[in-house]
């Protein structure tokens, strides 16, 4: 049986939230910022940390 890890939503400051909202409007999707400290350490490598509070999925 597979164990589900708890992944938490990031706490964003006002500037970060405004940037997320701007990006959502520009690209027409809903973005979710996850707390990188709660992401699984072993995995596919789909998430990359960029030394800030958000994580990116390379595409």
UniProtKB/TrEMBL annotation:
Region (Disordered): 39-59
Tree of life domain: Bacteria
Protein name: Uroporphyrinogen-III decarboxylase
């Amino acid at each position: 049986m597979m164990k589900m890890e708890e992944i938490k939503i990031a706490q964003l400051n006002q500037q970060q939230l405004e940037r997320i909202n701007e990006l959502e409007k520009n690209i027409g999707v809903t973005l979710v910022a996850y707390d990188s400290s709660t992401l699984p350490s072993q995995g596919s490598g789909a998430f990359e940390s960029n030394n800030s509070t958000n994580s990116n999925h390379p595409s």
